[in-house]
Amino acid sequence: MITLQEAIKEFAKQTYDTVKVKGGKNYIQVKDRLDFVRRTFGERVSIRTTTKDLNGLAEFHTEMWLDDKLISTGNSKEIRVGEKSYEKHESVAVGRCLAFAGFAGTELASADEMQNFIENQSQPVAKPKPQSNPNAKQLADDFINKLYDVSKYAKTMKDYEKQKEIFAKEYDVMSLQDSNPDVFQYLVENAQQIKQQTENNINGRK
How large a percentage of the chain has pLDDT more than 70? Predict the structure, then answer.
């Protein structure tokens, strides 16, 4: 019965068709690595892949088990998950798992992984569009009311600005800039009016 170390040495002696990617490097394809492992170990080996999809971020986790012992793992993540992209990044996780187990050339990454990395360099990933906050208007009004209260009692503009900063963090008003731009503009206009009113109040007390 062949051991893992013996199999790795045998794999290194094999000649495979490789894929050349930008940079001039050649990479052994995942399908060839997987084929060798299955032919060599038969039912002794198990390649197990699990996936998670959280808010558009797909995570792939692959494990290689030999004689009921965990030999290695490999992971891959992808933001833009289309049908083909999903399959490709699952293969990346498998390729990395096999590479960590010792079934790779002089490189660690798989051909699919390297090609995808290079392609992504010229294809910037679009940021997920912020979801609109259904309570945005109420949040803005609550913040504005807080500013009115501060404006009545602030003795200096420094005190006012300090309290304003505290409330801005508490209500996370900056998040409205992307998720609810109209409400954010409404908030900014009111905040400017309150600031002017505060300056007038403070100057009037002098």
Answer: 77
